[in-house]
Specification:
With 250 residues, the chain is α/β, with parallel strands linked by helices. It has a seven-stranded parallel sheet with strand order 3-2-1-4-5-6-7, sandwiched between helices. It has one domain: NAD(P)-binding Rossmann-like Domain (Rossmann fold, 3-Layer(aba) Sandwich). 42% of the residues lie in helices and 15% in strands. Strand 1, helix 1 and strand 2 form a beta-alpha-beta unit. It is built from eight helices and seven strands; from the N terminus they run βαβαβαβαβαβααβα. The mean pLDDT is 96.
């Protein structure tokens, strides 16, 4: 049975992917930072799952977690870096604390985890591994809100092709998924998301299951390494001067 490690897998999009992989016959390793109860509750509902804790602000601890899991789980073939922090600052002035946390959790730690995962010993030399980074459609459709978050996601996105070129074995693949507005975020109410979530080319709410199905395809499909797929109903093709959660409040 193949295994997948999903960071931030206890809640929201991470949990959606955990369920999709589990029901497709995968053993799911649900990483959590502080959501101990949510991770345990989710794992209990899945056919084959376990939980693991690490603070992604501590990159060394996260790398150690990846190395330990790769040694314990010979069939661990996929790492999905889904966890991130999403705190507000804007283009007028970077908040130093928000910037430092964003760069560590959203860029440095997932990049180092990917490096450790790709470099870990393999039960069979020809075992293929997949790394999937969740980035953001904001990188193709920028706005100045959540400035440090966006900078960090841009840094993470830059590692997709770099890792594919310089760290992966020929049989490995490194991918990105760029989601659009998919779930209520930051301080949004559900009814606000009904408006902001439709601010895309198709005027529809993008179902998180679409992202989960994309991740499943990447984990076993034949897309060329280094590619990023947008799952956003065309949101990245529109010009939006602010984050949609603020546009919806006008």
């Amino acid at each position: 049975m193949p295994a997948v490690l999903i960071t931030g897998g206890a809640k929201r999009i991470g949990a959606c992917m955990a369920r999709a992989f589990a029901h497709a016959g995968w053993h799911v390793i649900i990483h959590y930072g502080q959501s101990f109860a949510a991770a345990g509750d989710l794992a209990a509902t899945l056919p084959s799952a376990q939980t693991v804790q690490a603070d992604l602000a501590d990159a060394d601890a996260a790398v150690a977690m990846v190395k330990d899991l790769a040694a314990q789980q010979p069939h661990l073939t996929t790492l999905i870096n889904s966890a991130s922090v999403f705190r507000f600052d804007d283009a007028h002035a970077i908040d130093p604390d928000i910037f430092a946390e964003s760069m560590r959790v959203n860029a440095e730690t997932p990049a180092r985890m990917a490096q450790a995962f790709l470099a870990a010993p393999r039960a069979q030399p020809d075992t293929a591994r997949r790394v999937i980074h969740l980035t953001d459609m904001k990188l193709a459709n920028p706005n100045p809100d959540f400035f440090s978050y966006t900078m960090a996601k841009a840094a993470l996105a830059s590692t997709i092709r770099l890792l594919a070129m310089g760290a992966a074995q020929p049989q490995d693949r490194v991918y990105g998924i760029a989601p659009g507005a998919m779930l209520p975020s930051f301080d949004q109410r559900d009814e606000e998301h009904e408006t902001s979530g439709r601010m895309n080319l198709l005027h529809r709410l993008t179902d998180p299951q679409e992202l989960a199905h994309t991740a499943l395809f990447m984990a076993g499909g034949h897309l060329a390494s280094g590619q990023t797929v947008f799952v956003d109903s065309g949101q990245h093709l529109l010009a939006q001067p602010r984050d949609v959660l603020y546009l919806a409040r006008r």
